[in-house]
Amino acid sequence: MVNRQRAVPVDVAALRRAALWAMRHEGCPSGSEVSIAVVDDAAMAELNRRYRRRAGSTDVLAFPQEGGGLLGDVVVCAERAAAQARRYRHALERELRLLVIHGVLHLLGYEDASPRGAQRMRRRQRELLRSLEAAEGGRG
């Protein structure tokens, strides 16, 4: 877990817990790992251009790995998360955790390109976030 930006405060431990929670509740084998990076808007725009050939920033990208214990990399844009938290009127930490869970689900094969896949993924990420918050006593 690495925080490569300074514009938005990030609780690194909370993001790590969200990733581990999603992995455990999705049945990942013990010892599985996910690399998480939190970046600024400019860095995310560059990654989006380079790997997806799309202009501009995005909220989260996931890069699956083949084989081994590393499931892949999740990159979250802190500035996008902050804007989305304001738009949806919830805490920044909640939005960041939701994006990490979303990225982990992508690494595990969930897709949101189709309407049915997007609905399934949204439902599962909400379930995971709510169960994590309940386990932590309602944080978020």
What order do the SSEs take from the amino end to the carboxyl end, as H and E? EHEHEEHHH
Largest beta sheet, briefly? Answer: 4 strands, mixed
Strand order in the sheet with the most strands: 1-2-4-3
Q: Per DSSP, what share of the residues sits in E-state strands of 2 or more residues? A: 15-25%
Q: In total, how many beta strands?
A: 4
Under CATH at level 1, the class stands as Alpha Beta
Low-confidence stretches: none
Structural class: alpha/beta
Distance between the termini: 20 Å
Instruction: Identify the CATH architecture.
Output: 3-Layer(aba) Sandwich
CATH topology: Collagenase (Catalytic Domain)
Count the helices. How many? 5
Gyration radius from CA atoms, angstroms:
14 Å
Whole-number count of domains: 1
Instruction: Bin the helical content.
Output: 40-55%
By CATH, the superfamily comes out as Metalloproteases ("zincins"), catalytic domain
Rough outline: globular
